[in-house]
Amino acid sequence: MALELANDGRRIAFQTLGCRLNQFETDSLASEFEHAGYTVVPFEEHADAYVVNSCTVTNKADRKTRNSIHRAARRGDALVVVTGCFAENHKRELQQQPGTLTVDNARKRHVVDLVDAHLRGEIPQPQLLQPDLFSYSVPEPIFHTRSMVKIQEGCDNYCTFCIIPYVRGRAVSREPSEILDHVRRSLDRGYKEIVVTGVNISRYRYAETGFSLLIEQLLEIDADFRLRISSMEPDSLDDRFFALLEHPRMSPHLHLCLQSGSERMLLKMRRQYSAAQYAQMVGRIRARQPDFNITTDVIVGFPGETEADFAATCALCRELQFGHIHTFSYSRRSGTRADRMPDQIADSIKRERSEQVRRIGTVSKQRYRARFVGRCQRMLIEQIDEQLGCARGYGQHYLPLAIEPQGQQRNSFVTVKVTQLDTTDDPLLRATPV
Ligand code: SF4
After folding, report:
1. What are the average pLDDT values for consecutive 10-residue runs of the chain, which has 434 residues?
2. Structure pTM?
3. Which CATH architecture best describes the domain 376-433?
4. What share of the chain is helix, strand, coil (3-state, %, to 5)?
5. Measured from the CA of 163, which atom of ligand 1 is nearest?
6. Which residues, at least 6 apart from 279, have a Cβ–Cβ distance to it below 8 Å?
7. For ligand 1, which residues put their CB under 6 angstroms from it?
8. How far is the CA of 236 from the centre of ligand 1 (A)?
9. Which atom of ligand 1 is found nearest the CA of 162?
10. Domain 273-371 sits in CATH 3.30.750.200
């Protein structure tokens, strides 16, 4: 209470870049600031401190992060806190910027205390605090209707293009009882959708508990909710996991990172699966659930990618009928093995290939969504705009839905029938409650 009164009138603003893990961590920190008496304001407004939760996965992410830091730094004498993967990867650059406090990923959890210390006139010293990867509190449902649960951190795979193992560190899994407790508390707060997240979640292992057993335990929690698995690597999945995909609380959606359809490229990327194994996995899931939504990431223009390699990627993307393809142009990351490889691909070729994959992705997304017209979905309502007469949310297959609201509440389930598909690149499904 004392902290609340002391901070009354303090304003804090966030800018989050990159992955879902960052989003979850920001939501949790923002909730803690609110509990401590701060008001969370948009990044464009005046604040006492600005927190940039940054990303460094591509050059574009670096550019966006620098831009956010500069925007915050222009706002007078406010404190600018830079945390996240850019802060790890560009420590020296940040040390030269006065008024900026750099906090590494392992100590991000302490941002509230660090900002408090600064505003009390102390000199915050993040390096003196204990690393703490997991004890983020459950965010308030005011930020999102989905609650994420972080089950692990870091990665040991060292894919040749990826900077993540260098900035998020070695793989560490969180104790299962803590994860279960976090999920139960999220459900008690009213969340209806739990998203399992981490850097490389399929490699989760804590003592005798592997990924599948953990997911099974989460699905057994007796409450009205659905479980979604966020982005994962298509390796180390066992029979038990495939069986769990049919559980009534499991969302029939997986984001399985493909990266390339060329066996040669996958080897050069040092991925842990082949294109044939990936296709088999998709076939296995769809044999039991033909409408299962599989979305993916594809990298184009990896060093040495020939026309034939790229054609293999396009062919596999067409064949697997993804619900969405997130296309990345390969971005050189200093310190990674791919950065030192010969035969780097020209930007113009990367742009052209990226556009081709984007077009394939649009066609397959439209086709995938069209199959739901005339069918029912269990929609979780995320936003209601009374003025526009529209409520939006997602169905269990992670399809964006819109209905005319008829007294429904935000963050509640409603069964709807899809009546129409918009004709856009990212088509919304229009539906009516049944
Ligand atoms: S699995 Fe590969 S791409 Fe994913 S975080 Fe680890 S190193 Fe990066």
Report:
1. 56 94 92 93 95 94 95 90 95 88 94 94 91 88 81 95 93 97 94 95 96 98 95 92 97 98 98 97 97 98 98 98 97 96 98 98 96 97 88 96 90 96 89 95
2. 0.90
3. Beta Barrel (2.40)
4. 40, 25, 40
5. 8
6. 316, 319, 320
7. 155, 157-159, 162, 164-165, 199-200, 233
8. 14
9. 8
10. yes
